[in-house]
Amino acid sequence: MQTATTVAEVREQVRAWKREGLTVGLVPTMGYLHEGHKSLIVRAAAENDRIVVSDFVNPTQFGPNEDLESYPRDFDRDCKLCEEAGAALVFHPEPSEMYAPDACTYINMDALTHELCGLTRPIHFRGVCTVVGKLFNIVTPDRAYFGQKDAQQLAVIRRMVRDLNFGIEIVGCPIIREEDGLAKSSRNTYLSPEERTAALCLSRAVFAGQKMVEDGERDAATVLDAMRAIIEAEPLAKIDYVKMVDFDSIEQVERIEDAPVLCAMAVYVGKTRLIDNFIYEPGAAA
Ligand code: AMP
After folding, report:
1. Is 213 in the pocket of ligand 1 (CB under 6 A)?
2. Range of the domain at 244
3. Does 132 share its domain with 7?
4. Residue 286 lies inside a defined structural domain of this protein
5. Residue 185 alpha carbon, nearest atom of ligand 1
6. DSSP states along the chain
7. Ligand 1: which residue has its CA nearest to atom 7?
8. pTM of the prediction?
9. For residue 235, is it within any domain?
């Protein structure tokens, strides 16, 4: 497995692969990799000849009071995980390689990005779309892999690829959880032992809401009230949002009808903001 820190190195390697007729999969990450990221790389390796993992804490998707500086980093450990999972190249640029000091071009989306996480993190999706668009241009993958853990991001990237004709297949992958249910996240390392226990209220609420919907409840407010009650019973937890939206448009729904819905939440546990969700696709096998 190779590592690269420059755009030029990545382009040269990908060109060589393409000359050989090989397909390329891309897994964009911010590093500090865990089993969730690994599942994306393993899936990508099963479906493509060569896998590029990007490992870059992207400054443009962090707001001024967010955790850019403290975001955990361990590149050596990340490389081991990437190699085990079947990656061929890890792209680990410095911010200065990705953004010229006078960079002023961004990908802005008019819809989808103002709801859910976009309300609390107003510039987040502009940063995500811009860096993912840049990675798509640098790597020119056949397929790119994103986790349902960040379900709004998955919907946003799908829309961006459609609207801007990137011609890349976007593959969504299921949420990988700890044994006790907590969705795996690089940010779980911020939690104290008490907060780690308290954080289980997210997955408990997700599983309860999912069961209600699978058992036939169709009124969004009824499901959301039950989920909020589970989180509010946890003193260390503070809800940012718990909402039900159409998974394609990210617009709120009152009733679960024929289209896939995303039931998503962001919850502060202490100072750490965690997210979790479930997607319900009517007609899909349970
Ligand atoms: P991040 O490094 O947090 O930006 O995540 C990189 C990619 O890994 C995103 O597509 C995430 O949705 C995905 N991911 C992160 N955590 C998980 C998880 N627990 N299960 C599945 N995918 C995940």
Report:
1. no
2. 186-277
3. yes
4. no
5. 16
6. -EEE-SHHHHHHHHHHHHHTT--EEEEEE-SS--HHHHHHHHHHHHH-SEEEEEE---GGGS-TTSSTTTS---HHHHHHHHHHHT-SEEE---HHHHS-TT-------SSSSSSTHHHH-TTHHHHHHHHHHHHHHHH--SEEEEEGGGHHHHHHHHHHHHHTT---EEEEEPPPB-TTSPBP-GGGGG--HHHHHHTHHHHHHHHHHHHHHHTT--BHHHHHHHHHHHHHT-TTEEEEEEEEEETTT--B-SB--SS-EEEEEEEEETTEEEEEEEEE-TTS--
7. 29
8. 0.98
9. yes
